[in-house]
């Protein structure tokens, strides 16, 4: 431990308190966030705690920590920091993120955290100026990640708005079907036993185009895809929840694979791959896919042939080319932002435990941090 750091019981650093009851029937739409064990859950017209504040899960979900800059209502499933004891709230947020709250699970069927057990922990804390410096650099990284995510959302919203304006809003006569524009589950092969890029269902986003994680695993089977393809969940409730992604994370000519519950959509010649992705986010297509499901309750899947009968208008080739040229820079910028966020996330996750524990000091990482930002 660094010489100027001190050891306290956690209770003397961040005093935790059980959140407040607020049944759904008593909630009134307002401007104050309700924070549950798993994070933001709804809005209310009253607050219980003035911001900035820090919460973590008490019941149901353990281990997640949340920072709220403004006034908020911590729900009874959460614990909130009642007293920061002179410490910097943003630093306490990062500090609590390094603790393994699951070690203190006292529940049987439902995970439960007893604050008294956590309060007894011995923890090492730096002086306030160093707390602020550590929190500043970590929050700068987080802010950059959030800005990139916000930019990505704006760019994807722009692409969807253009897609709807050029291809949906004019109510053209429906003369064609999805099968005229898309190859479904194109034939690709990877030798079993080889290592290949793998995407599971969990990695498919419900919003946005970028997958959250790509692993290298031994090929055993599953949906095959390449850059430019769109992945669409074919099973309930993943389809209804919006699990969809654009494949842009593979090397040139590389073949990846994923869950057997993916539909792989590939643009036919003369059709924009970006148009296919936007089409897959179109609620009309998703509703059609849901109507094509069969199977037992909870395990229903989209049937390929009925799905391909989705009706579409004849598309002007010049309009399609113009759409491709217009949105391609937006998709590429989303990809660049996503790559940058992956780098920033690795840097933050590497720095966090080392800075909070005092294993390393900020000046040892200044050059690396400056280069990343």
Strand residue percentage: 15-25%
The CATH architecture designation of the largest domain is Alpha-Beta Complex
Q: Helices and strands: which structural class?
A: alpha+beta
Total number of beta strands: 21
Query: What average pLDDT do the residues reach?
Result: 93
Poorly predicted runs are none
Q: Specify the CATH class of the largest domain.
A: Alpha Beta
Question: What report would you give on this structure?
Answer:
The chain is an alpha+beta fold and 373 residues long. It has 3 domains: 6-125, Alpha-Beta Complex (Adenine-n6-DNA-methyltransferase TaqI, Chain A, domain 2); 130-169 and 315-373, Helix Hairpins, CATH 1.10.287; 173-313, DNA methylase specificity domains (Adenine-n6-DNA-methyltransferase TaqI, Chain A, domain 2, Alpha-Beta Complex). The chain contains 9 helices and 21 strands. It has helices spanning 10-13, 89-97, 115-119, 128-167, 273-281, 283-291, 304-308, 317-357, 366-372; strands at 6-9, 15-18, 32-36, 39-44, 53-57, 65-68, 73-74, 78-83, 122-125, 174-177, 182-184, 195-199, 215-218, 223-225, 230-233, 244-246, 256-258, 262-267, 293-294, 301-302, 311-313. A 4-stranded antiparallel β-sheet has the order 2-8-5-6. A 4-stranded antiparallel β-sheet has the order 11-18-15-16, covered by helices on one side. Helix 4 (128-167) runs antiparallel to helix 8 (317-357). It is elongated. It starts with 5 loop residues before the first strand and ends with a helix.
Question: How would you concisely characterize the structure shown here?
Answer:
The protein has 373 residues and is an alpha+beta fold.
């Amino acid at each position: 431990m660094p010489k100027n750091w001190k050891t306290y019981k956690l209770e003397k650093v961040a005093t935790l308190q059980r959140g407040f009851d607020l049944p759904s029937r008593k909630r009134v739409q307002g401007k104050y966030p309700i924070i549950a064990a798993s994070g933001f859950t709804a809005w209310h017209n009253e607050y219980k705690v003035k911001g900035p504040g820090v919460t973590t899960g008490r019941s149901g979900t353990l281990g997640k920590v949340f920072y709220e800059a403004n006034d908020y209502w911590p729900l009874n499933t959460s614990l909130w920091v009642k007293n920061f004891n002179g410490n910097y709230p943003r630093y306490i947020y990062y500090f609590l993120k390094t603790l393994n709250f699951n070690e203190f699970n006292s529940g049987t069927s439902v995970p439960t955290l007893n604050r008294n057990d956590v309060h007894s922990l011995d923890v090492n804390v730096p002086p306030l100026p160093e707390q602020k410096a550590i929190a500043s650099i970590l929050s700068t990284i987080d802010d950059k990640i959030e800005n990139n995510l916000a930019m990505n959302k704006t760019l994807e919203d722009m692409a969807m708005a253009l897609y709807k304006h050029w291809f949906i809003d004019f109510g053209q006569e429906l003369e064609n079907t999805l099968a005229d524009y898309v190859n479904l589950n194109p034939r690709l092969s990877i030798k079993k036993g080889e290592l290949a890029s793998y995407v599971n269902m969990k990695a498919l986003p419900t919003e946005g185009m970028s997958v959250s994680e790509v692993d290298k695993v031994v090929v055993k089977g599953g949906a095959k895809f390449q850059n430019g393809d769109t992945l669409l969940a074919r099973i309930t409730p993943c389809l209804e929840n919006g699990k969809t992604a654009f494949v842009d994370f593979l090397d040139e000519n590389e073949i990846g694979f994923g869950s057997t519950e993916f539909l792989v959509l590939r643009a036919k010649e003369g059709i924009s791959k970006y148009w296919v992705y936007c089409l897959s986010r179109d609620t009309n297509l998703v509703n059609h896919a849901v109507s094509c499901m069969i199977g037992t309750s909870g395990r229903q899947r989209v049937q390929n042939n009925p799905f391909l009968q989705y009706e579409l208008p004849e598309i002007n080739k010049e309009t399609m080319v113009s759409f491709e040229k217009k949105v391609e820079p937006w998709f590429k910028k989303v990809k660049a932002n996503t790559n940058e966020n992956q780098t920033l996330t690795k840097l933050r996750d590497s720095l966090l435990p080392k800075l909070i524990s005092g294993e390393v000091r900020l000046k040892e990482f200044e050059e690396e941090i400056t280069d990343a930002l």
